[in-house]
Amino acid sequence: MSASNENKKRAVIILSGGLDSTTCMGLAKEAGYELFPISFDYGQRHKIEIENAKQVAEHYGVSGRHKIIKLDFLRDFGGSALTDDNIDVPNVVDGLTEGSEESEIPVTYVPGRNLLFLSIATSYAEVTGSEAIYIGVNALDYSGYPDCRPEFIHKVEEVIALATKVGVEGKGITIETPLIDWTKARIVQEGLKIGVPYELTTSCYNGKAEACGVCDSCRLRLKGFEEAGSKDPIAYLA
């Protein structure tokens, strides 16, 4: 490895293959980081996103560093519409999403998911000498998810400082959440400016070859592109 590569700053990107995480990948690259993507196969209904993540990693030229971690026990646990076939994914047609109370935590919340993701990403960050972890959490669009709040991120950073060698040595690992208070429209606008390959991504919770267009995630994505004055490049059933 050359001296210039040794001195380049590095970041682990939690890459789902969706719009938000892929935007984070682009933003990390723009910020000058050497990219180390990590994806999680946790038995999610929309497992197709893993293939999208592979394509995104290839697009950015970092397939060799892309780690895919299996967390099968999250499907064994169930308790979420994304990991339990007995719980339906809500959609706008059903009126479930729009009719729910703002304080309710959606059934698409996966218990402990981001806590697990960040813990494992921290391990990868230490091994690779990365100083940052990028995660595409958004408290604006997904305010019902407790593990997408700034308070959660700050507490995890505190734990990382206490529980890692680099933290004890005073170097530390930061958690970067550039999208946390952005609207979906702004995410799309900023991503398009830097050439984020949205055609390689998926956001649909139902996990089909074509996005359903009616689940909450599809609805938010389509609304974001519309408000950004752009056309979503992926295919939809509805």
Automatic annotation (TrEMBL):
Keywords: ATP-binding, Ligase, Metal-binding, Nucleotide-binding, Queuosine biosynthesis, Zinc
Cofactor requirement: Zn(2+)
Sites where the protein binds ATP: L15, S16, G17, G18, L19, D20, S21, T22, T23, C24, M25
Cofactor binding: number and manner: Binds 1 zinc ion per subunit.
EC number: 6.3.4.20
Pathway(s) per entry: Purine metabolism; 7-cyano-7-deazaguanine biosynthesis
CDD domains: QueC-like
InterPro entries: QueC, Rossmann-like_a/b/a_fold
Residues annotated to bind Zn(2+): C204, C212, C215, C218
Enzyme type, top EC level: ligase
Reaction(s) the record says it catalyses: 7-carboxy-7-carbaguanine + NH4(+) + 2 ATP = 7-cyano-7-carbaguanine + 2 AMP + 2 diphosphate + 2 H(+)
Quaternary structure, from the entry: Homodimer.
Similarity section: Belongs to the QueC family.
Its job: Catalyzes the ATP-dependent conversion of 7-carboxy-7-deazaguanine (CDG) to 7-cyano-7-deazaguanine (preQ(0)).
Record's protein name: 7-cyano-7-deazaguanine synthase
